[in-house]
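TL;DR need C-alpha cells for one chain.
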Amino acid sequence: MDNQNLLNDVRFLRDVVARTERPQLNYYWPVTLGWGIVVTITYLICGVLGMTGKLAILPWVWPVSILFVAFPLHWYLGGKVRRSVQEQGVRPRVRKDLMYLWLSITLIGMLWSAGLAIAGIAASHWYLFPFVWCSLYFIGYMMNGVLLSNEWFWAAAVMLTSMIAAYLAGPNFYWLPGAWIGGTFLLAGWLGWRNVRRHMAQE
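>> reply
TL;DR here they are.
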C-alpha cells in the first residue's frame, strides 16, 4: 500500500514538473505561422486602402481579420497540433496563462485604438497606432520567450530594433514597426519549425 502511494506521489510530481517546465520545442509553430500570414496580408490590405483613399473601411479591417479569420484559423491549427502531439504519446499542454496574456494584449490595444478614434486624433496622430501595438507585442513576445520557447526572444529583438530605427529615422518611417508585426510572427514560426525539424533529425 505504501509503495502504491509513493508511486502515485512520484507520478503527481512528474506531472507538476511537466506542466511548469518550459518546453524545449514549440510544436505550435503552425499557429504562429498562420498568425503571421493573416497579419501580413491584413497590413497590406490596410496599406492599399490607405493609398487609394478608402479610409472609411480601414477601422473595420483589423477587427474583421482578427475575429473572423485569425481566431478561427488559430483554433483549427491548434486542434491539429494537439491531435498530432497526442498521437506521439505526449500530453498536450493547455497554457491558460498565455491565452489570458494575449487576450489582455488584444483588449488593451483595441481600447487604445478606440480611445484615439473617440478623441478625434486618430488621423493626425496615426503613428501612435503602430507604436502602441508594437510595444504591446514586444511585451507579449518577451513573455512567450519566458513561458514558451526561445525563438520568441528573436521576434522581440526584431520588433524592438524596428521601433528604435523608426523613431531615429523620423516621421516618414513611423509605419515601419507595424510592417514588422507580421514578419515577427513569421520569423518565430519559421524558427519553431526549424527547431522541431532539427530535434526530429537527431532522434
